[in-house]
Cysteine desulfurase (Salana multivorans), 442 residues
Amino acid sequence: MTTTQLPPAPGDPGAGGQVLSPAELARVRADFPLLAREVNGRRLVYLDWGATSQKPEVVIDAEQDYYLSRNAAVHRGAHTLAGEATELFEAARGDVARLVGVGEGELVWTSGATAGLNLLAYAMQNASLGSGGAAARRFALGPGDEIVVTELEHHANLIPWQQLAARTGATLRWIPATDSGRLDLSDLPAVVGERARVVAVTHASNVTGAVTDLAPIVARAHEVGALVVLDACQSAPHLPLDLTALDVDFAVFSGHKVLAPHGVGALYGRRELLEALPTVFTGGSMVEVVTMETATFLPPPQKFEAGTQPVAEAVGFGAAAQYLTDLGMAGIAAHEHELTQRLLAGIARVPHVRVLGPTDATDRVGVVSFEVAGVHPHDVGQVLDAEGIAVRVGHHCAQPIHRRLGAASSVRASLGVASSTEDVDAFLAVLPTVRPFFGLGE
């Protein structure tokens, strides 16, 4: 098993790196065994990385090796296997933490981004009920307080905050979206007002692909004393990410979108915030001293990791993080940016297709949602699948932004590290045949 080391990115890692050469990309694709299969007698063209990523062999091997030779309960035993398993588990935390620019003690394992956001929302509810003592009062919400989200959020970063507002009496507000599927920040000081306590925002929309201009949002939120919660589900797999430099207070991302196994994700929190945040799940593995009347809890991140953890999945997540680090996120971003340009330009040449979101590749990731006039997205997806092309159809767990852009649902083609020019061209060759297939003309 070998992986491709991309050329180092010049200057700021966020400025982008060099695009993969055909030979380099061929070596990357060879790392993903599933991409070699056929679907409906055709070469698989996987354009559903936004829903879940395919897994490189190093991740599959890491998870399998854990079960074959290291499997044991972590943080619970003194025997050799328990020690090795614990060492792997914590080493994986370090690998993932370094990928996103945070300290190991600032990364909590969760089952995914949704679990991380719910953990955070319920912890704030506990603070609102008095848990956590004086240190936790900074998280308490009540009538008169405001939680700010955006119209671009997928349901995972919307509904937990709706529910928290309903349970605490706080008011939910949102930053609107523009017709082009970006955030409208023209009235930011009014939306993120003096009563704002939480601002939860996506880093990149899973519908429009638009990358959020975070700096003014973070600055305004901190100006009024609000916490910034970043949903990095669609940025962590595709862009260089330094959560410390972005100055957000919390962030979440899912492992399965970042080449890792399903069932594992991460919640980042600034160390002093995690120390003050009340617990949500309690029980074994997160305690210091327990009597029949009371218990004291371990420092973070362990105080948020009650019970058995997804150890093999975390080990796989660590392998995925190391794989991406070895490739270089700046190079991955540059590669996907070039493919996104090609995808958008090709779609623009197909009549009766409307892209939901920016129609150029500036400040966006390779997530392209679109409608084909007169054809239901599910039918578009079936025509593509018949040719071996996998895309997502539906509302992508983001009904409000679809409604804002005048669509009930859409088709979504999304790119990943192993996507190729051939993938994009195969998709673009079939897309013009969709309407004629249903007798609608070109």
Q: What stands out?
A: Residues 80-99 form the longest helix (20 residues). The CA atoms of residues 120 and 280 lie 8 Å apart. The longest strand covers residues 196-202.
